[in-house]
Amino acid sequence: MSKKESFVKGTLILAAAALVARVLGIFQRVPLEHLFDDIGNAAFVQANNVYLMLLTLATAGIPSTLSKMVSERYALNRPDEARQVYRAALIFAAVMGVIMSVALYFAAPWFANHAKVPQSTRAIQAIAPALLLFPAIAMMRGYLQGRNNMMAGGISQIVEQIARVFTAILLAYILLKQGYGNPIMAAGASFGSVLGSIAAFGVMLYFIMKTRKKDRLENLNTAPSAKLPMFGIYKDIFSLSIPIVLSSMTIQAVYFIDTTLIVPLLSGQIGEASATQMLGILGQKAQSIAGIPPVLAIALSTSLIPVISAAYARRDDVHLKRQITLALRISILTGTPIVMSLVAAAYSINGLLFTNITGTGIIALLTFGTIFQITMTTSNSILLGMGKSRISMFYVLGGIATKLIFSLVLSRFMGIYGIVIATALCFIVITYLNLRLLRKIVPFEIMGKRWGGFVFAVLVSVGIGYGLNEAGILLTHVMPARLAFLLTCLVVGAAVVIIYLVLLIVLGVISKQEISGYPRALQKLLNPLMRLQPARVRARE
Length: 541
Prior knowledge:
Blueprint: H1 3-35, H2 38-59, H3 62-75, H4 79-114, H5 121-127, H6 130-146, H7 150-177, H8 182-217, H9 230-248, H10 250-270, H11 272-290, H12 293-302, H13 305-313, H14 317-344, H15 346-353, H16 360-368, H17 370-385, H18 389-414, H19 416-441, H20 451-473, H21 481-506, H22 512-515, H23 520-526, H24 535-539
Helix pairs in contact: 1-7, 1-11, 1-12, 2-4, 2-5, 2-6, 2-8, 2-10, 2-11, 3-4, 3-6, 3-9, 4-5, 4-6, 5-8, 6-8, 7-8, 9-18, 10-11, 10-18, 10-19, 11-16, 12-14, 12-17, 13-14, 14-16, 14-17, 14-20, 14-21, 15-21, 16-19, 17-19, 18-19, 20-21
């Protein structure tokens, strides 16, 4: 296998693992929402978002940086230097894990009171020990990626999520049956992340030991090289990883802002109990549904990032333009029908998955905004692949500032909906800045003159989907509600996707020549449908 094929295969393995892990994480929240009341939902959401924010801060970017440093040294036949870098990273991970875990545990009461959900204190404290192991896990993943072992990180992600999801639900259920209140139940569910970290650490330890055994057999444990200065190692790691960390934490920063501000901002308008309920709805319902659309689109576009990086390195502007266009177009075209299906069927999805239909408007609005999350994440990845992480970092900070300011302003007039709109504005600002920079590097158009056909296809498909959803709701009068909601979701989803695809082809938004550059899975789906495209449309290509 060539180096390029190996790298692309590794990227796809990581993307597939992230896809599985993300889906498991999303559907953890559905059974928990059934087990918790408003206080339990808010407490779990607050603990989870604070933890994920700190976890992103502690680990994002460092694995890829460590991977780069390790792979370079093995390529130069300096394995001892690679091991020195890895040991230095593990020392940092151990220190950072202890500091962040202890800090989160003791700061939990202050943060919970400041965010006006004091019942979340125990949930935050219960999740704090997970931070002990995750920095080390991140370093192990980075080291093994540098050794061209992508499978280890992927398997550990999946095992971690399986352990976390099922233990969280099991512990919450056991505590409910034992008669404990929702704050303790939320703490039990949060502790699932600790068990997930232990499972992931065990998997990574196995692969590290397996790699060491292989090195001994292949006699890669060469004589020690000159000792590298620790300061120099850390300088190299942080100079490369800090911009990536800040670029990677956008979504978690947005969720952290909501976790911190929703109850303080809204309690004066609707009361503290209702504001706490809004926090639970946004975290357990809306964020879990809104997490679905970006998964496939980002995984598909991620597979193109190594190609973009290579084209930029060799200054091949023609190929670079083609690949940037392709990545953004695939993200938009594949993400949009999922977004529109979920928006059109928001009422039925809410009724099918959760205990009641409260918060349907919040789910629909937050999910609609994820189309900009998709474009933001894809354009961020392209900039990172081109080595523009520092500039991307400042754009992210600008987007987060936008989110914070507009949350404070719009919440006064629009309540929770203003806070959700501020989230979409954050993603829009970052997307705009990213695309403006990319166009300065190489001129490109995502769809050019085909935007009109695309917008028409979206409006028609979502309009028909919404009409079908309204008709489907009437079925709740003649059959069990959840069965009616399930049938409605299936019909709406199928109708929106099929109508959308057919219109894209008929209107010439997608061309036969264009799809030849798409990933093979998309080609198999679209090629048979291309027969529907009128000859006059094909002639324009």
